[in-house]
Structures are given as C-alpha cells and as structure tokens.
C-alpha cells in the first residue's frame, strides 16, 4: 500500500535574476496540513510559491507529490493546484457570477453582487471573489500569496473557516502571510533575505 505523503520540497534553491533568493529549503506538507511562509519583503516567499507551482524554475532541488517528481507531468501538477497571487486576476468587464458560480459567491458573502461587473467591486470584494475561485476549485493544494490582503476582520474569519474546512478534508495549504492566520495544523517556515 502506497502511503500518501502529499507535497514535499527537497533542498530547493531559486535565483531571481542574478540573485540567489533562497537555498536548501525543505519541507513536507502532508494531507490536512498548512505551512505559513513568513519573512520580510524580499525573503523569497512569493518565489517559493511560484517554484512549487512550477512557474519559476528551480536552480536546485525537487518538488515531489506522493513521492514522485511533481514536475514530470506539469499539466497534471497544475490540476492539483489552486493559485492566488498578489493580483486578484479579476476581469473588470465580467460579472462576479461570470468569474465563479453563484454558490461560490455565497461562500464569500458576494451573492448580492452576482450581476455586477467586477470593475465596480471594492479591493476587498475583488480579493473575496478571487478567494471564491480558490474555494470552488476543489484542488488539493492551495498556493496563496498574502490571501488576506485587503480583507476586513469578518472576511478574514470567513476565509479561515473555508481554509479549515479544506484542511479537514485532507487539503493542503501553502501560504505566505505577514498577518496572523488561524489555521489548524499550521506550521511556519521563516525565510530570511
């Protein structure tokens, strides 16, 4: 019987331009666990998320999924991931409902905005719309870059509720954050520039 180990990073190193951003980063993210990336701006939190997603090439190391090279089949790896970057990736001309179904809008308290073009949403509402897409994705791994940016206290609590539900079903979360996140089974990886 093959034991599911989830996502594993082994001795990762990444360059941005000519600068070594980080090296010798290793971690295991088993099903039902969260890893919060902490550190000052420029420490490599976003670069690490992008490397795990396969968006930034590794200078060294490897990413494994259940013990196998995750990048052996990049399209399959992409299906395992739900990505939330600094930008919300919201198309201004589309309505909130055109971005994600109405049930997902309800999950982030945006049902009343279903027919409103996204260009009329506030920054916090756009962030919630982006989070609704993550929640609706059903991807096992959530890669989140500062997921609570622009959110009010109630919206952060709502996000934490959905994140906890994702973890409870065996999902995994790798998130960079400067603010506290109350997630069960969360460990912290501190990065330094």
Helix percentage range: 25-40%
Name the beta content range. Answer: 25-35%
The number of helices is: 6
Kindly state the number of beta strands: 9
Write down the oligomeric state: single chain
Mean pLDDT: 94
Elements, N to C (H/E): EEEHEEHEHHHEHEE
Radius of gyration equals 17 Å
Largest sheet: 5 strands, parallel
CA distance, first residue to last residue: 41 Å
CATH superfamily: P-loop containing nucleotide triphosphate hydrolases
Structural class, from secondary structure content? alpha/beta
> What is the correct CATH architecture?
3-Layer(aba) Sandwich
Query: How many separate domains make up the residues?
Result: 1
What sort of overall outline do the alpha carbons produce when their principal axes are compared? globular
Write down the CATH topology.
Rossmann fold
CATH domain class name: Alpha Beta
Secondary-structure topology with pairs:
Layout: E1 7-16, E2 19-29, E3 34-38, H1 45-53, E4 60-65, E5 68-69, H2 74-79, E6 81-84, H3 96-99, H4 102-107, H5 123-137, E7 141-145, H6 153-168, E8 172-176, E9 186-190
Parallel strand pairs: 3-8, 3-9, 6-7, 7-8
Antiparallel strand pairs: 1-2, 1-4, 4-5
Structure overview:
By secondary structure, this protein is α/β, with parallel strands linked by helices. The chain has a single domain, classed as Rossmann fold (3-Layer(aba) Sandwich). 29% of the residues lie in helices and 27% in strands. The chain is built from six helices and nine strands, in the order βββαββαβαααβαββ. It has helices spanning 45-53, 74-79, 96-99, 102-107, 123-137, 153-168; strands spanning 7-16, 19-29, 34-38, 60-65, 68-69, 81-84, 141-145, 172-176, 186-190. It has a five-stranded parallel sheet with strand order 6-7-8-3-9, sandwiched between helices. Strands 2-1-4-5 form a four-stranded antiparallel sheet, with helices on one face. Strand 7 (141-145), helix 6 and strand 8 (172-176) form a beta-alpha-beta unit.
């Amino acid at each position: 019987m093959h034991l599911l180990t989830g996502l594993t990073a082994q001795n990762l190193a990444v360059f941005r331009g000519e600068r070594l951003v980080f090296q010798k980063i290793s971690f295991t993210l088993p099903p039902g666990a969260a890893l919060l990336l902490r550190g000052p701006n420029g420490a490599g939190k976003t670069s690490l998320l992008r490397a795990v997603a396969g968006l930034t090439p590794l200078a060294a190391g490897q990413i494994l999924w259940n013990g196998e090279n995750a990048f052996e089949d990049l399209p399959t790896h992409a299906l395992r991931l739900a990505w939330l970057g600094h930008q919300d990736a919201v198309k201004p001309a589309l309505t909130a409902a055109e971005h994600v179904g109405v049930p997902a809008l309800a999950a982030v308290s945006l049902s009343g905005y279903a027919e409103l073009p996204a260009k009329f949403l506030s920054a916090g509402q756009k962030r919630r719309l982006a989070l609704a897409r993550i929640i609706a994705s059903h991807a096992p791994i959530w890669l989140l870059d500062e997921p609570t940016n622009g959110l009010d206290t109630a919206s952060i609590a709502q996000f934490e509720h959905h994140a906890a539900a994702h973890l409870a079903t065996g999902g995994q979360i790798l998130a960079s954050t400067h603010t506290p996140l109350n997630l069960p089974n969360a460990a912290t990886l501190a990065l330094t520039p």
